[in-house]
What we know:
alpha/beta; Glutamine Phosphoribosylpyrophosphate, subunit 1, domain 1; Rossmann fold; six-stranded antiparallel sheet; 39% helix
Amino acid sequence: MCGIAGWIDFRNTFPDRKKxxxxxxxxxxxxxxxxxxxxxxxxxxxxxxxxxxxxLEHGTQPMEAIDNSGQKAVLSYNGEIYNFKELRNELRGFxxxxxxxxxxxxxxxxxxxxxxxxxxxxxxxxxxxIWDCQRERLLLIRDHLGVKPLYYYPTDGGIIFASExxxxxxxxxxxVRVSSTGFCELLDMLKTPELTIYDGMYEVxxxxxxxxxxxxxxxxxxxxxxxxxxxxxxxxxxxxxxxxLSDTIRGQMVSDVPICSLLSxxxxxxxxxxxxxxxxxQGAFSSYSVDFxxxxxxxxxxxxxxxxxxxxxxxxxxxxxxxxxxxxxSSDQMLDAEVRNNVLHxxxxxxxxxxxxxxxxxxxxxxxxxxxxxxxxxEAADEIFGGYQWFRNPAAIKANTFPWLTAGxxxxxxxxxxxxxxFVASLNRDAYRAERYQEALREVPVLDGxxxxxxxxxxxxxxxxxxxxxxxxDRNDRMSMAVGxxxxxxxxxxxxxxxxxxxxxSMKSFDGREKSLLREAVRPLLPDGVLNRVKTPxxxxxxxxxxxxxxxxxxxxxxxxxxxIRDLLDHKKAHALLxxxxxxxxxxxxxxxxxxxxxxxxxxxxxxxxxxx
Length: 613
């Protein structure tokens, strides 16, 4: 993986443009610690930071290419193209010659041949910037599901882009400004395509591209989910899912550096680990899990987690023969000021929802990066196969809002209880949420003749894939790239998503359990204990010492008259929380409001955020 940055300015009004783009590129050095490159022309400045994974000696970016007709293109990209070898062979048939074994060279020559149609040929995770020198045109392309981030900021006569907001903030034209719309995006478990929390800053929508030239900016979609009649019977569907997933993981095992897997002992990560382990011909495949020291010694069943991960991860590791490592975290590690500052710096925003997951994931990835450069994740299986409880909750399905924000689920995503009621009310979040919900529904593809129940479940699946999953993918990318680790997500292969999206819900849940279809597809690979485990989410610490540490920070905030969050807090509720006894500890998933308040305070202070409310 890598980091990209750039600035197109047709007015050429900034003589220090090179210096600015150098600073933009340096600000994301963590995404590519192995090499740096820049490319400049009259109106163009491109930057790149490289994490070496394929063809370690070559593949330096930005990369130029010229075809036989003299057409020239320059590429800066972040990601992996899993089918680059097939594309290289195809391009050779058209007369293109290659000097390296890198996917970068395939991409830039692929553009020269296919132009903007290049995206339709790609299987991978990517954010791509291509400058067409003859046409004086920039293309920004993002992968199908949005695994890799790509931000942009339109200006008068130009455009600024980068892998992360912090790079854009290095440009004097970009304002760190947040309005009520940004807070609505921040405080709900919701990620509206294209929007960010910052005014004037956008993301390239997954499955689409931006084309910028002297005529301005236009958007094109190269991929979207479509509604098609599913014609396979159950057994064929099971076998097809297994075949696509196996082929996907086989393709994603391509790497010139060490590769491992994230293993929780759940169905999704176990399936990925088992299939990946089959591809290893020499030595043992490595797997890693994370939990908390307190949970290992004194785990308590709560309303969300029914079992600890460790016994199931060990069972799977023994079954498929991985070299398994368990990382156990203490509350002191989670509360460490440097760790929390690093997390915030990686996210460029308050880490919303279950704030303890961000530092624990950061610490896990930091440990992995000392041994591997690439890790496989089971992320996205729940959204694709229907793993969340709201997929099976009739009230949530029929509710006139996003199903995870209904009464039965929203308590897990709360973050406003400690914020001042007047501030929260001023955001008018209900109206904003309703508008975004209707906007999303208008996008859902329609299948003529589909039953009402199947239509509703198609809507739920679409919402999960386009409004919920992007939050988790963003978290994975930021926490992993902060330590120079590439995380691949086999379940986000667009072929698998397209196929399963059109499988009727009755077939996806044929035995009444969550992810029935996936469970049956991987049954031959997994031990019974893992197969029959009830879904359990990512670990959350149950250690009271962690919350006590957060309360100490809250007390410091209340005493600090310069704390930027002070005017946004409900001081009565904040003091009531501080007055609880040490034994009055919140359930892990009810700490959201405390975490949010503290992260917001750090964020506003660190980034000098201008609040426009």
